[in-house]
Predict the structure.
Amino acid sequence: MRRVPRQFSWIDQRLVREQYVERLSHRAAALYLFLVTVGDAKGMSYYVDTSIMKRLSMDLTLLDQARDELVQLGLKTVPGCSGYQSLQCAC
């Protein structure tokens, strides 16, 4: 389950305080915002790639690159059988 941080914000403030936002490409930041926005209580998103690509104006190569960036920074888990899970700054 998602935990609401003490310093409540819709997007975890650690994205700025811990300089994640400076390390993300625009496409990775857009994907993170999308996944956090559409995620359920456990952070799971069930959107298929084609839908995400259309909404974010990305092709599959750019989507995969953005996804890889989020995984490398610990902001997103790898795919499971039920979708992708975006993390609230897994620091």
